[in-house]
Design brief:
With 637 residues, the chain is an all-alpha fold. Among the domains are: 64-224, no CATH class; 498-599, Tetratricopeptide repeat domain (Serine Threonine Protein Phosphatase 5, Tetratricopeptide repeat, Alpha Horseshoe), CATH 1.25.40; 603-637, no CATH class. It is 70% helix and 2% strand. It is built from 36 helices and two strands. The protein has helices spanning 2-13, 21-34, 39-48, 52-61, 67-79, 83-95, 105-115, 118-130, 137-154, 156-160, 168-176, 196-202, 205-221, 227-239, 243-255, 262-275, 278-290, 297-309, 313-322, 328-340, 344-356, 363-376, 379-391, 398-410, 414-423, 429-441, 445-457, 464-477, 480-492, 500-512, 516-524, 532-544, 548-559, 566-578, 582-596, 625-635; strands spanning 603-608, 611-616. The protein has a two-stranded antiparallel sheet with strand order 1-2. A hairpin with a 2-residue loop joins strand 1 and strand 2 (611-616). Helix 6 (83-95) crosses helix 7 and helix 8 (118-130) runs antiparallel to helix 9 (137-154). The protein is elongated, with a radius of gyration of 31 Å. The relative contact order is 0.03. The protein binds one DNA strand of 10 nucleotides through helix 5, helix 7, helix 9, helix 14 and helix 16.
DNA sequence: TTAGGGTTAG
């Protein structure tokens, strides 16, 4: 008996010597029989292994759990992502008058952060101050993380309702006299963040800046900061698109003699990707290799994404291939890299390879590959994916629904697109825009405009993409006044700087309506990006309205940056022909035939059944070539 | 004891 007791005492004093959960269970069984006084120690060992069911069962057998037992179970709940239960336990503990300590607050604050319990988190902060633990580095870091997360949603309230202004008695009474069930998601955050007016609020970068200042204040009031403190702030800046500030923090980190770790690198990579700074990205990659982070999953996925964003797909793929154990995120990063760079077939090949490697598609991988179905107009594949999505209950996701709406619209089935849109429990700006664009591309301009106005009435503030959609609708339907009104509202009311796409839509709209000089003037007023995409529709309009003089001016403008544009010469030649200037048309055609040799011919294709039929200019190799030509002759009379 | 990845609309 004595020797068993000695062994158990030794193991309990050095729990790190216990190597498996079965050993814990053996010790537990022995202690439960002989030494119930050690039950609390066994509980802490169960929680060390994050073994939740055993921890809870054991905890429930304790007649009056100690602070040690309470904090073990609170931590265990939090570590297993049972955040609500963790907070309930914390409230119960406070309710019976047990004082929390520096071990328990980080777990509780983590639970508040994940649940987005904004006001409850503030009360916990007040309690931290009441117990004099605000200078504990772990608690401080947990607070920093909590406010950094909250700031993305409603951190102005952090500034206005700082718990530092509460008295100790106030904070204590909050945690003593409330019911955790009253702390459902506070209205500004969490699931309800789809609330449009709220979205509008935090889409403003200026406010985001102000919010991060409050997080920075928490950082500065900490008596000391470690790597976690810096990383938390850097992540906060990065997630708030305050990239310069994030980079500044890395420099400050160096001044504080702290070395960037894997967390730091994975926070910086999205910034480098955003700025398409491949040189800096390579530098980070090298630093990662030198410091042993080469296999870190967060870094490898960040690098894959960064290289893809910098249009260095080969580097992305090389890195991806070098990974010995690819998880679903590795696959998804590479698939998304292909799809976002227009390599839709390659995206599909990888998707199939992922399935062969027994990696099941997740919600995210599904939403990455659906746009490939949309662009390749492969409806059967898209429908198969939709079936999979329904079977796996991914269809509640806004990402999934928006991509499905877009896919069905692009594949020609606007009714199914509307069906998915109407079936959504809630909409966001992206899903509204997908549906508006669907209507616009199908020529249902009035439906698109109606939906755009409905979206505004619902309180959503349209962004530049939503305006592209509604302007496309106006352009396709020739709704000149409506289009110009939307364009002006975008600039004056919503303060959105027009981009290439907006100019292209309006120029096209004016051109189709015969207001050729207005269209020319608008394009000339563009500050940059006067590329072929914006001139060609005007040139097409010149042909329709037989305006040779303006067509020549347009081609002259285009020759300043794209002298070999075949489309421009075809349209100019056709414009000459339309007014009977056949000699000029022939001259342009001669020039064209010389340029054609330098150009890769365009290709179009159609899917019939399971087969894709592709056609290239001048290619007569298709087996049904004669039938196709006969059919075309019938169609064109 | 505290911090992190891939996704949707042009």
């Amino acid at each position: 008996m004595e020797s068993i007791q000695t062994t158990i005492m030794t193991l309990l004093k050095i729990p790190s010597q216990i190597k498996s959960i079965s050993q814990v269970k053996q010790i537990h069984a022995q202690i439960a029989k002989s030494f119930p006084i050690f039950t609390s120690d066994i509980l802490s060992i169960y929680t060390k292994f994050n073994f939740l069911p055993e921890s809870i069962t054991l905890f429930n057998t304790l007649p009056s759990p100690s602070i040690h037992a309470w904090k073990s179970v609170i931590k265990c709940y939090s570590s297993n992502a049972y955040f609500f239960e963790s907070l309930k336990c914390f409230v119960k503990m406070r309710g019976i008058g047990i004082h929390p300590d520096h071990n328990v607050f980080p777990s509780v604050l983590k639970a508040c952060t994940h649940l987005m319990y904004f006001k409850f988190g503030e009360s916990v902060h007040a309690s931290v101050i009441r117990f004099g633990l605000e200078f504990d580095i772990f608690t401080g870091n947990a607070l920093l993380s909590m406010y950094s997360t909250f700031q993305r949603f409603s951190a102005l309230q952090v500034l206005d309702e700082s718990p530092e202004r509460m008295t100790a008695d106030q904070s204590d009474s909050i945690l003593h006299h409330h019911n955790i069930n009253n702390y459902k998601l506070c209205p500004e955050v969490g699931q309800n963040c789809q609330n449009p007016s709220f979205l509008n609020q935090f889409s403003n970068r200026g406010l985001g800046n102000l919010r991060m200042q409050s997080v920075r204040k928490v950082f500065e009031t900490m008596p000391e900061q470690d790597v976690v403190s810096y990383n938390t702030l850097i992540m906060g800046y990065a997630q708030n698109t305050m990239y310069n500030e994030a980079m500044m923090m890395i420099r400050e980190m160096g001044n504080a003699k702290l070395k960037p770790d894997a967390y730091t690198l994975s926070s910086v990579l999205p910034i480098v990707a955003k700025y398409m700074d491949a040189w800096k990205g390579k530098e980070i990659h090298g630093y990662g290799i030198r410091h042993g982070f080469e296999r870190n999953r967060f870094i490898t996925s960040g690098l894959t994404d960064m290289y893809a964003n910098c249009k260095m797909l080969e580097d992305s793929y090389h890195l991806f291939c070098s990974l010995p154990d690819k998880d679903c995120v590795s696959w998804c990063s590479m698939i998304a890299a292909c799809v976002q760079n227009g390599l839709f077939d390659e995206g599909f090949i990888l998707f199939r390879q992922m399935l062969s490697a027994n990696i099941k598609p997740t919600l995210v991988s599904c939403s990455s590959i659906i746009p490939a179905c949309a662009h390749l107009t492969t409806l059967p594949l898209g429908q198969q994916l939709h079936g999979y999505i329904i079977r796996h209950h991914f269809d509640d996701s806004l990402f999934i629904s928006s991509s499905l709406v877009s896919m069905y619209a692009k594949c020609g089935n606007i009714k199914l697109a509307k069906c998915v849109f109407d079936g959504m429990k809630q909409h966001d700006l992206v899903s509204w825009t997908a549906m508006i664009m669907g209507y616009a591309s199908h020529g249902y301009a009035h439906d698109a405009i109606f939906l755009f106005k409905e979206m505004e009435m619902e309180g959503f503030m349209p962004n530049s993409v939503a305006f592209v959609a509604v302007l496309t609708a106006c352009s396709h339907a020739g709704l000149v006044n409506e289009g110009l009104t939307f364009f002006n509202r975008m600039v004056r009311h919503y303060d959105i700087t027009p981009e290439f796409e907006h100019y292209a839509c309006v120029a096209d709209l004016l051109g189709r309506a015969g207001k050729l000089e207005d269209a020319f003037g608008l394009i000339c007023s563009m500050p940059e990006n006067k590329t072929a995409g914006v001139w060609l529709p005007l040139l097409a309009a010149c042909r329709v309205h037989k305006n040779v003089e303006l067509a020549e001016k347009v081609v002259l403008e285009m020759s300043k940056f794209d002298g070999d544009n075949v489309g421009a010469y075809v349209l100019l030649s056709n414009t000459y022909s339309s007014v009977g200037k056949y000699k000029d048309a022939a001259t342009v055609r001669q020039m064209l035939s010389k340029k054609m040799n330098k150009k890769e011919p365009a290709c179009s294709w159609i899917r019939i059944g399971e087969k894709v039929h592709a056609f290239v200019t001048g290619d007569e190799s298709h087996s049904s070539y004669d039938c196709i030509i006969n059919a075309l002759n019938i169609l064109f009379g």
